[in-house]
Amino acid sequence: MKLIIPKDYDPKLDVIQTQQAIRYIRETFQDEFGKELNLSRLSAPMFVEKGTGLNDNLNGVEKPVSFTMKDMPGKTIEIVHSLAKWKRLALKRYGFVMHTGLYTNMNAIRKDEDLDNIHSIYVDQWDWEKIIAKDERTTQTLEDTVRTIFKVIKHMEHEVWYKFPEAVHHLPDEIHFVTTQELEDEFPTLTPKEREDAITKRYGAVFLMQIGGKLKSGKRHDGRAPDYDDWQLNGDILFWYEPLQHALEISSMGIRVSEESMKAQLKDANAEDRAKLPFHQMLLNGELPYTIGGGIGQSRLCMLLLGKAHVGEVQASVWPQEMIDKCYQHRIQIL
Question: Coiled coil where (predicted)?
Fold first, then answer.
């Protein structure tokens, strides 16, 4: 268990006021975000059938929560890790057209998560996906989309300041773009997380690009499943978070794999057996649209905008009693 206790922490808002702020942020952000990216809100599953290839494998080692159900004997059902692949299939199934897309409230369980100030076994995020043309699978498309999302987050800062002026955490005015290889070149002796902290502290807000593939050192900056993001066209939105003195990831996103890039990445990840799964077969056969998409953490965004010290202050989850007790001693109000 890792826990950071900010010195002289002041939560600003009590529990009821915090709940009011959470509701305001969640309702307001999703409406503005949907309008800016031309997305429609859809309902989404909390679980999918094992063997369809739809669940997110994350780093390939995390095991999803699974169960069986009475009316589907012999079938295993899995709680989703994310909806990264489900969304792309949904765009085809529901007949979305070019430059339109969807967003949904995604709730997941990641039981193997290491708990700390910003990690919980309960995941709540806006998962989103949008159709683009194949020739729009470019760095420019990715960066333009990141700037749009950053603009909405900045606008939310002003909205929250208007309603809860004593609580708002101020954000930088611009976002800086950098690749994982550029970070390794500049900070070769630091770990990947230390590099993220160093660059995010310098600029305030960073979009860290090209996550998943091997760097010149032969190591990977971080793990990424090989079958949804194109590792050359993806990244994370990071903010320097003063209360905890490290980078805070708000979004993981990217242009999704083409037939060619998924083949290459499956081979690189020694996961070519996944190509036989139904979702992967559809993609390889050219039956799915080209898309860009990602997830934006709902609790993380509330935490960022309200300057909270622990994600448990903005979501109800399960925590070790030792962590709850220590937080309580330092005015960190775990829900």
Answer: none
> Helix 298-306 crosses helix 139-163 at what angle (to 10 degrees)?
50
- Give the strand pairing for 291-297 and 246-256: antiparallel
Active site residue: 229, 230, 236, 313, which one?
Answer: 236
pLDDT at 112: 86
pTM beyond cutoff 0.90: yes
Tokens at 257, concatenated = 């794999």
Return averaged pLDDT per consecutive 10 residues of the chain, 335 residues in all: 87 92 94 95 90 72 83 89 87 95 91 90 94 97 97 93 87 96 97 96 97 94 90 97 94 95 93 90 94 95 95 94 93 92
Active-site annotation holds for 147? no
| List 62, 143, 157, 249, catalytic entry | 249
How far lies 116's CA from each of 133, 147, 221, 267, 327, in Å?
40, 29, 21, 34, 11
Could you count the other beta carbons within 10 Å of the beta carbon of residue 217?
A: 11
Token readout for 140 is 């420019």
Rounded-to-integer distance, Cα 222 and Cα 322, Å = 30
116 is catalytic: no
- Return the DSSP state at 132: -
Topology of the domain covering 15-329: BirA Bifunctional Protein; domain 2 (3.30.930)
Q: Where are the alpha helices (DSSP H) in the chain?
A: 15-37, 84-93, 139-163, 180-186, 192-203, 259-268, 278-284, 298-306, 321-329
Question: How far apart (Å, rounded) are the C-alpha atoms in residues 226 and 263?
Answer: 9
Distances (CA, A) of 20 to 40, 229, 303, 319: 25, 35, 13, 23
Residue 231 near residue 224 (C-beta atoms within 8 A): yes
- 3-state secondary structure at position 103: strand
- Told to judge if 20 belongs to the known catalytic residues of this protein, a careful annotator would answer no
For the chain, which residues make up each domain, given as ranges? 15-329
Mark whether 110 is an active-site residue: yes
